[in-house]
Amino acid sequence: MKKIINFLKAGLMILGLAATIHVAHAQEDKDTVKVGILHSLSGTMAISETSLRDVDLFAIDEINKAGGVLGKKIVPVVVDGASDWPLFAEKAKQLLEQDKVAAVFGCWTSVSRKSVLPVFEKNNGLLFYSVQYEGEELSKNIFYTAEAVNQQATPAVDYMLEQGKKKFYLLGSDYVYPQTTNLVLLEYLLSKGVPIENIGGGLRKDESGKVISAGRYTPFGHTDYQQIVADIKKFAASGDACVINTLNGDTNVSFFKEYAAAGLTAEDCPVVSFSLSEDEFRALPAKDLVGQLGCWTYFMSIDTPANKKFIADFNTWLAASNVAGIVKEKRVTCSPMVLSYNAIYLWKAAVEKAGSFDVDKVREALESGTISFDGPGGKVTFTKNHHMTKNVYIGETMANGQFKILKTFEQVPGEPFLKGTFKAK
Amino acid sequence: MKLLYHNITRLLLLFLLAGTLGLHAQTPSGGNTRQLITEAILSSGDEQKKKISELINADDVALTSTILTKWRKSEVYIATDAGDKKVPYTLEEDKPIRIDNGQPLTLPQGSAVETDGALRKAIASTLNLLGIADPDPKVRQGAVAKLGGQQKAEYVPLFKARLEKETNAQVKYTLKEAIAITELADASPEIQTEALKTLGSLYSKRSGDLLKKFAGDPSVPERQAAAKSSLVKLENYLSFCETIETMFRGVNYGSVLLISALGLAITFGLMGVINMAHGELIVVGAYSVYVMEGWFTRAFGDAGLQWYFIAAIPFAFVNAALVGLLLERSVIRFLYNRPLESLLATWGVSLVLQQSFRYIFGPNNVPINSPSWLIGNFTILDISFAYNRIFVVCFAALIILLTWLLLTKTPLGLLIRAVMQNREMASCVGVRTAQVNMLTFAFGSGLAGLAGAFLAQLGNVGPNLGQAYIIDCFMTVVVGGVGNIIGTVCSAISIGVATQTLEQVLQNSVLGKITVLITIILFLQIRPGGLFPTKGRGLED
Amino acid sequence: MTQSKLPLSSEHIAIIVIAFLGIVVAPYLNTLPPTSWLYISDFTLNLWGKYLTLAILAISVDLLWGYTGLLSLGQSLFFILGGYAFGMYLMLQIGVLGQSKSELPDFMVFLGYTQLPWFWRASHSFWFSVLAALWVPALVALVFGYLAFRSRIKGVYFSILTQALTYAACLMFFRNDTAMGGNNGFTDFKLILGYDIRAPETQRALYIITATTLLLIYLGCRWLTSTKFGKVQQAIRDSENRVLFSGYSTVSYKLFIFVLSSMIAGIGGMLYVPQVGIINPSDMAPDKSLEAVVWVAVGGRGTLVGPIVGAVSVNALRSYSTTAFPEYWLFLQGLVFILVVLFLPKGLVGLWTSIVEYISKQEGGLRGVWASVMESLMKRKGATK
């Protein structure tokens, strides 16, 4: 009997092999070029990442309608990272080794980028990453259309100082982006002459008692912000305080509901958020948030013809789209989406400049500093350090879930390595 | 010194009065209010800010405050007449009323006036000055506190004048505090010392930072001593408030746990079914609230927002109970004798349900607006109590009471208890155990739905909501002693208080939670049956 | 089940053949030129390496659940502890090759550390780390198991408590202050024993080691379950009280098996890390332990082949469906699970066994079944005409 069981085992192994080989079947076509789209379409991160897939597909359709790249139509290979980081690495391997894509647009969380980074370096692939991140990284295989810390956090602090704020409470989710941002902000605030006792949220000290980091952190999916809000209320009692919020996506709901319930308002103590875009606002009761601030390199409310056209075209595309499970109603655009959109056009521009899909040649073109694109958020240009020069906007939340732009910093160059650059006076 | 100070303040007061009178003399009395506000709205830049600051001189204080408040909330609109003249108006009971003459607007409606931070700041400061004389004590208090924080000596006479007339104790307190805080900016150390002492005796929370500053400044020893003693007083007082507040937070966090776990206490505790899909039943309740909110706002507009929640509560219960019923009929009834397998199968169900939510409501979280009677808080001493939290506590108590009544005072309760205690025996005496199981499971699921209705008012509503609560729920039930409602109540409240206290002490959200989990694990080694173990003579295997 | 008395039964032959295919042939095919139709790509081989480490995890679950009746939802904790213990070595091997060009791991540099925390210092040694991947999970299992079994926690309670333990550990590892990489965990490995970890040769070697380890663990467990010890273990599953009353100390038996299975899981984790290239706390989320239980249930609990079949087939299905129809993966996983629990309590292996039994009961075996099927088909055809 066991013999049979073992035959079954063999059979299954063969079946499994067949399945994996089946996945690998590659269709070579002279008139097309494949690009990978690697986002979580299921699991916890699907909330945010699905929108990026949509806009990627939209950009690709747009380019294909206009004649493609170097005369070739782009064929997107969409894979699901399922909010599972090792699976991201597996999918990246599949895209590069099996599907042999020319470039990959994808990832949202820092950890997903970190998990695919070795894969891209090993296979000399090309990844365009488009979500605000912590910096301190520069891979020759990754191009960051994302906001660097000096394209979000430091301009926002400048703005708050300008508004006369003197006390800063640092609050974030416990992962590498908030941790690093707050580390940089701590140095930045001290360099601007803000005394250390005016920085709230707690300080972390090393063995010798030297302050190495600041901020209050909560885990993903944290739901109970009562204690933290009470702490902020105490901190803000003496006035002129603000909260620098790097909480991740949906924990913001619990936080802001608690904030409103405790009677804190944007006038007493405004909250500047870096991870809360129009897309997240769809899930927030906007009334609780009026007057709170955000800082991004794109807002849907930007009043330019390019942006208006982008939004209109995207909605038309959505209406006609037949992608399975796509949400068609009440869609908005936000910074990560536009940065993803820009990424595809920038890649196209670089390929056209290089005259080839070869990764090394495309990289060379991108690094030349001449690849730029007039996107919905204004002009963006890749610089030699794989980051972009672009406009930074400070916006204020309105009851309709949009931002009203309060201030624009023109053409800020992205800088990944900021730690240690701001010295206290 | 003191004399000089008084003279200066008197002088200032005079100037201020003179200025006010002077302005009054220039403008025609009566009815200038609407005109001034209209001008302010239609101007722009620094001019606008100046005009706003001059509005303190308008005749009709109440009207000025009303319109300014609306302006600040972007509820002032501008219509344009045939001659391209701009006419600002507001909505009163949904009817457009012109600001310049108070008449109904006959022109087509326009769009809202945009405001920015600086403008709102200007409006706020005028409102504050107006607010000192506002009939509403809350407004007076807020205005005084804000003006006091600016530490401008010219406001002191205003405060003092008000203090003489003021009858409300809280506003009086705030006025005294504001005067003392403003005096801290005075040049004379004596006055500062006095002010520091006053602040200490007032237990002024707002002055904490200033006290610290003076306590750390050794240049005038007397002043430093006063600051230090006031600071100690304040800190003792605050830590007392904090303790009470932490307790309250603990109780309401415990109530959330209790509401979430009660359904599980029924299905797991009484029936022995490990329902991993319990979290998803909570989500069903939460989405029911979302659906109900949509219906109400569509049917009744903004008024619906006030009352939808009342209708949503039974709706959530029924929906979750129906899903539970379906679950029991299709999966769980085959697994009553295989508890471990029921754990696995219901986990499968939970995955399917999660993905169904994504399919029906989209992967994003959905927004839920709380009715206004659940927003806000009230304060005793310096301890604030949020309405929604108080509601949760009361509601938890109510649910417990109803559940207890159902289990002990109704025929169904009797049957449920009979089946739980001895299924075979109950069956022998003619109880239809299959039916009782089904009803009990549906009831437990319905309770999960109620929990969802509440969680919807406190945080996210999305497909993953249930996952965040499931382990906490299991812990609560196991600690309480399986099959014991009172045990569940005790364990929920103690876990809640312990978690909040640890969070407060450690100033860290996760370490508190980890410590509680580890404590629970250790506690169960000592008392494997939980707080109130079920006593039995049988040797279960 | 009859056991063959021959020195080499057909069953043994089957094991040898499959082991040979898995350990020797598959890596050999990987070295062929990519143009050959028999070529197995680096990607596929690596994927299989990953599946096999998960199969090791599944065996550890089954050893507890299928053979001793203890449903542990903490196996992914042990798996990940093993992974982290070995991952620390890999992190330190990166040295100055990392992003930050510092001797410290990158994430520590981000967080402002200036020196290695004490518990990291021994991880420079390869052998220390390999042993740590065994004793760290074993220690946790020993302490937890001793406390739990002593107070006679069993059944569902044991499951819930192990789940709580895993959850607590998961929260702990998610904290950046724990100095274990927080949410990002460990990644961007470069070297292992001086070899480039990303080179196909290294990956092939890792695959061979994994396949061999799986074989050894399989054989070891097979032996163990056939000894007297194994019989007691299964008796505990069936009726613990009777075993207790027969004078056996069930606590020691359960504790031994719990610790052993935690070590097996740790080995799985240790092999998983270098092949997948990342380890982070989301792998020990409560769901992951349940997934491992699913594999065992799908494959067939109470057999040693079952977990391997289950782990490999479910994961292959997952790899396939997250590409082919991403939206439906959770539906599929959930439904498979419900159906398996309801209708296939013995899993795929059990299904196969019953089919075979059914066939062997028919006259003339497979041929008889064939004949009767054909006959009934013919009949129906005749009837419709």
Structure report:
In chain A, α2 runs parallel beside α11. Chain A has helices spanning 2-24, 46-65, 85-98, 110-123, 153-162, 176-191, 226-236, 251-261, 278-281, 305-320, 335-354, 359-367; strands spanning 32-39, 73-80, 104-106, 127-129, 142-144, 167-173, 199-200, 203-205, 211-214, 216-218, 241-246, 271-273, 293-296, 372-375, 378-382, 388-397, 403-413. In chain A, the strands form three sheets. In chain A, strands 6, 7, 10, 11, 12, 13, 14, 15, 16 and 17 form a ten-stranded mixed sheet that branches. In chain A, strands 2-1-3-4-5 form a five-stranded parallel sheet, sandwiched between helices. In chain A, strands 8-9 form a two-stranded antiparallel ribbon. Chain A is built from twelve helices and 17 strands. In chain A, 60% of the residues are buried. Helices cover 40% and strands 20% of the residues of chain A. Chain B folds into two domains: 2-212, no CATH class; 242-466, no CATH class. In chain B, 43% of the residues are buried. Chain C is mainly alpha-helical and 385 residues long. Chain C has one domain. In chain C, 71% of the residues lie in helices and 2% in strands. Chain C is built from 15 helices and four strands. Chain C has helices at 10-31, 42-68, 75-94, 106-110, 126-150, 155-174, 200-226, 228-238, 240-245, 250-276, 286-299, 305-324, 329-343, 347-361, 365-384, and strands spanning 186-187, 191-192, 195-196, 278-279. In chain C, β2 (191-192) and β3 (195-196) form a beta hairpin. The model of chain C has no long low-confidence stretch (mean pLDDT 85). The chains are: A alpha/beta (425), B mainly alpha (541), C mainly alpha (385). Chains in contact: A-B, A-C, B-C. Chains A and C meet through α1, β2, α3, α4 and α6 of A and α1, α2, α4, β4 and α12 of C.
